[in-house]
Write a structure and sequence with these properties.
The complex is a heterodimer of chains A (122) and B (877). Chain A is 69% helix and 14% strand. Chain A has 122 residues and is an alpha+beta fold. In chain A, helix 1 packs antiparallel against helix 4 (95-121). Chain B is 52% helix and 15% strand. In chain B, a hairpin with a 2-residue loop joins strand 17 and strand 18. At the A-B interface, helix 3 and strand 3 of A face helix 1, helix 2 and helix 4 of B.
């Protein structure tokens, strides 16, 4: 019983920090797979509305993440005009991105399952 | 695939950045448009959108950092920034550069010598399996030829065993006579070392058929090119060595100069041959130890196994031959004339390497404290950079870049300087009359070590501000001015660094003082003769084709001619001068001894042959008895003059004049006793010596000792003319006795020069270290000092406040360093005459030096303290 608080205090914080980035990737990939093609601002809006305003993506984290995912070949980008005739960079999922999404979803489900199990046990 | 993209990104970086900017702009504009549409004012909407983005610069950095290739770009940027920062503080830059040049330069030079003399194997195939076979007793390395043959034929652990010895002779080619040093080597020598001739052929074991059966020589490339003008027709021709004909059969490859690192012989001759009539006698004499054995281990045999094998053979030989009574064997690394020279050289070079490394450490400590102070002064800049979103790692990387940049630059310059110095050292021939060279040209390994040391030390002292940066609390720094970092603790890390540095410097200063003092003492040491005002004319009568037996007549003639020259006050002849390079020793026995095993002897005594009048010419004091006369000839009873140590060892306290002893089973009567002297080295303990009349113990080696009143320049031509009247073909070497002692003083001179330079470096480092620390300490406490002055503090109190700590560290460090120096000097005593730090002169010298250095270093900071003007200072704040 004593071991659990210490795990939450130290170990879980480290897991959580690492996972935050993982979950941002998952959210972005999922958004793109659902919406097809979207610019950065659109991704922010979508995640906000789709999560009933529960999740808010920081712009400061989003763009580095997008850039990294593009470098990894999961997404690719294209400059296009928006409906309001503004130039914006649109992102879409690649085949590799599709696979990464499946992997990330599975990981996330396992994580959730694990956390649930622990919560039940406690 | 992503690598390509990264490279493309790297090439089109500004394009990438533009794209990022455009993307962010469009994002912000879209958000503003949405906010305005929902009724927010345009200005508030813009502000909100920007805040949501946070630090755009930091974000863009993070985006570009996602490319691994970008790290290099960042490094380049860091380096440029570092260079700019360094240019802004030229004082620090210059101090750091000079310090690194000195420290790295010293290390590269010493490492290069270490590399050339000790680490680098001999430049022959299979050199890793080569060993010199010496006796177990240290300093006793030579073997006799019959012993060599026994070791060679009976061992089961060596692939091959060869022997060699160094000799000199006059070589006549065409009309020119060259005073040459050459190696007499066993026939298998070249084959064992795998040396192929550059021209002609080399000799082999199959060429040897007993004494004087192989009158061949192989020239060294150096001698052939340098002295014989690279004459290609020389191979196959006959040259004369000491007037005996020898055929030049080949020329050795340019890279080969024998199996010793220092020696560059002019040619090689089979050991069974000799240019002298008596030169092959040693081949059958088990008691004449005059050659080195060099063996190559058989594959799969360890040195230890070989040593056991040889020792078993040695015991067997001792049972069979009384002369081999105490024979034993030990393997040592070849290249430095066995262990007698190799031991001290290795110890000395290793010790100097250690000292050089200490200089580098002291330099690092010095720069570390300077750098830490510099970082503390930049605490505001660091705080601002942290406050606007730079990570601590970036700040630290920036600082490291500055440190490594300075180190690498200083190290490169230091290496360049030392490479030039080393090339000069390689060309240098310390003794014109000996074939000695110190080939220490730097190789790739040396440059690599130089680079590693510079970058390594840069990292070492660059990491010192790590804690400062990590613990900077930027809000506090911004609020309180410049002293946000913890500068004043009771005992800071910088104090420790300064203490260490001072201790190391004192150690080096002590070592150099001990060496200097030893050097000065050795110049006034009682040598057993007075070298001042004496001219030496040296030759070997063999070079004129004379034999040992005809030598005394010729020598007597020389003396008569010499004494006739005006200005000559005394003249005498000795075969080899004491503290020269030759001289032999042999065992002596008490009267009544019948079993002449070495273990039954009283001791081994040095022996010399002298003419009547030598003692007077040399300035050796005759304590009792008489000098020799020309009547002590071959027909007269055998007589000897011995020194005090001989008498003490042989007869104790009894009166010894008229007593006799046995040498080579012949009784010798003691007719004179002289003062003790130095015979082989200045650091030797007193040893027994005996002198015989020339006519009873003839020797072709001739050193004419001429004591004179006139200047050298007037005597030499007359002497040369007089000697030429006796035999115009005899080559003489003329020099003053003091100059001739250069050889024996050489190790001490090298040690003194090296330690002197190291000590000087250390002193300079100590001054800059204390100066930097004191200066910094004063600048940090300006305000406090100002207030104290305003409140009426006395100068002495101010000084104590401002300089107390650096001076305390100076005293503490000096004390520790002096202690370390005392321990280190034990090592020095093998090389330098009477090296001891307990000498009050050394002790006082070190103390005075350190105090002087301290005064020098704190003078300017002290002046600054005293000139503090409180009103102006407080106004500035």
């Amino acid at each position: 019983m004593l071991a659990i608080p210490s795990c939450l205090g130290v170990g879980c914080a480290a897991v959580a920090r690492k996972d935050l980035q993982g979950s941002l990737d998952l959210l972005v990939l999922k958004t793109l797979s659902q919406m097809g093609e979207l610019h950065g601002y659109g991704i922010v809006l979508h995640i906000q509305s789709a999560s009933d305003e529960l999740l808010s993506v920081e712009e400061g984290s989003l763009y580095p993440a997008l850039h990294r995912m593009e470098m990894s070949g999961w997404i690719r980008s294209e400059w296009k005009l928006t409906e309001t005739n503004r130039k914006a960079k649109y992102y879409r999922l690649t085949g590799a991105g599709q696979k990464e999404l499946q992997r990330a979803e599975k990981n996330f489900e396992q994580l959730v399952k694990g956390i649930r199990a622990i919560l039940r046990y406690a | 695939m992503s690598i390509l993209r990264r490279i493309r990104n790297k090439l089109t970086r500004s394009k990438l950045e533009q794209e990022i900017d455009a993307e962010i702009r469009s994002h912000i504009e879209m958000r503003i448009a949405d906010s305005v549409a929902s009724g927010v004012s345009a200005e508030a909407a813009r502000r909100d959108a920007l805040i949501r983005f946070g630090n755009q610069m930091a974000m863009r950095e993070r985006m570009t950092e996602e490319d691994a290739g970008m790290v290099w770009d960042a490094l380049g940027r860091d380096l440029i920034y570092a260079a700019r920062q360094l240019r802004r503080t030229p004082a620090f830059l210059m101090t750091a550069l000079v310090t690194m040049i000195l420290a790295i330069g010293a290390n590269v030079v010493v490492f290069s010598v270490l590399n050339a003399l000790i680490l680098r194997p001999l430049d022959v195939p299979g050199s890793a399996r080569l060993y010199n076979v010496v006796h177990k007793q240290s300093g006793y390395d030579n073997q006799s030829y019959p012993d060599y043959l026994d070791f060679k034929t009976r061992n089961t652990t060596f692939r091959e065993v060869a022997a060699y010895r160094l000799q000199n002779a006059g070589l006549t080619a065409g009309n020119a006579v060259y005073h040459s040093w050459y190696c007499r080597v066993s026939g298998n020598y070249f084959d064992m070392l795998g040396v192929q001739p550059a021209q002609g052929r080399v000799f082999h074991a199959s060429d040897e058929h007993g004494p004087n059966s192989a009158p061949y020589i192989v020239l060294s490339d150096d001698f052939w090119r340098g002295r014989l003008g690279a004459d290609p027709a020389i191979v196959g021709t006959t040259v004369h060595i000491n007037k005996h004909p020898f055929t030049v059969i080949g020329i050795a490859p340019a890279a080969f100069h024998g199996s010793d690192v220092f020696l560059w012989p002019d040619f090689w001759m089979p050991m069974v041959d000799s240019p002298d009539d008596e030169g092959t006698n040693f081949l059958s004499n088990r008691g004449m130890h005059n050659l080195w054995i060099l063996g190559q281990l058989a594959p799969g045999v360890s040195p230890k196994q070989a040593e056991e094998n040889l020792n078993a053979i040695a015991q067997e030989m001792a049972r069979q031959n009384p002369a081999d009574d105490d024979l034993s064997a030990r393997l040592v690394k070849p290249g430095l004339l066995g262990d007698a020279l190799g031991g001290p050289v290795r110890a000395f070079v290793a010790a100097i390497m250690l000292l050089a490394f200490l200089v580098l450490l002291a330099a690092c400590a010095n720069l570390a404290s300077l750098f830490a102070a510099r970082t503390a002064d930049r605490s505001r800049e660091v705080a601002i950079r942290l406050a606007i979103g730079s990570s601590r790692w970036y700040v630290l990387r920036q600082l490291l870049c500055e440190a490594v940049l300075v180190s690498a630059l200083g190290g490169t310059l230091g290496t360049i300087f030392s490479a030039a110095l080393l090339r000069g050292l390689t060309r240098w021939q310390p003794f014109p009359e000996f074939p000695i060279r110190v080939a220490v040209s730097p190789d790739a390994g040396v440059y690599l070590v130089g680079l590693l040391l510079s970058v390594g030390s840069g990292l070492l002292w660059g990491l010192v501000p790590l804690r400062q940066v990590w613990t900077t609390n930027f809000t506090q720094v911004m609020k309180s001015g410049s002293t946000g970092m913890l500068v004043f603790q009771r005992f800071s890390f910088r104090d420790l660094l300064l203490g260490i540095q001072i201790a190391l410097c004192t150690l080096l200063v002590t070592a150099s003082f001990v060496a200097l003092r030893g050097m000065q003492r050795s110049l006034h040491a009682p040598l057993g003769f007075q070298p001042q005002g004496v001219l030496l004319a040296q030759t070997d009568l063999h070079m004129g084709g004379h034999s040992d037996r005809s030598a005394p007549l010729l020598q007597k003639h020389m003396l008569e001619e010499t004494r006739r020259i005006p200005g000559v006050t005394a003249a005498g002849i000795i075969d080899e001068t004491p503290l020269g390079t030759g001289g032999s020793s042999t065992t002596v026995f008490r009267m009544g001894t019948t079993d002449f095993r070495p273990s039954n002897s009283v001791f081994a005594a040095k022996f010399f042959s002298i003419s009547p009048g030598y003692l007077e010419a040399a300035g050796t004091r005759l304590l009792s008895g008489r000098d020799f006369t020309w009547h002590d000839d071959a027909e007269a009873p055998h007589v000897a003059i011995v020194n005090e140590t001989f008498i003490r060892g042989m007869f104790g306290d009894q009166a010894a004049l008229g007593m006799s002893f046995l040498m080579g089973q012949i009784p010798y009567q003691i007719v004179g006793v002289i003062e003790d002297g130095k015979y082989d080295s200045l650091t030797e303990t007193p040893r027994a010596a005996m002198f015989f009349p020339l006519e009873q113990n003839p020797d072709s080696d001739t050193s004419l000792v001429v004591r004179m009143q006139l200047p050298l320049a007037e005597i030499v031509p007359e002497l040369r003319e007089a000697l030429a009247r006796i035999d115009p073909a005899l080559p003489f070497v003329f020099h003053t006795w003091s100059d001739a002692l250069a050889f024996v003083l050489f190790p001490a001179r090298v040690a003194t020069a090296t330690l002197g330079v190291m000590g000087l470096f250390a002193a300079m480092l100590a001054v800059t270290g204390v100066f930097g620390m004191a200066m910094y300490s004063v600048s940090k406490r300006f305000k406090e000092i100002g207030i104290r002055v305003a409140l009426g503090a006395q100068s002495i109190q101010l000084m104590r406040a401002a300089l107390g700590r650096p001076v305390a560290m100076l005293l503490l460090g000096s004390a520790v360093g002096l202690l370390l120096g005392a321990i280190a000097s034990q090592l020095l005593s093998q090389i330098v005459y009477q090296a001891t730090p307990r000498d009050p002169v050394v002790f006082a010298g070190v103390m005075v030096t350190m105090v002087a250095l301290g005064l020098l270093a704190t003078w300017i900071p002290a002046q600054r303290t005293l000139r503090v003007h409180p009103a102006r200072l407080l106004r500035e704040e």
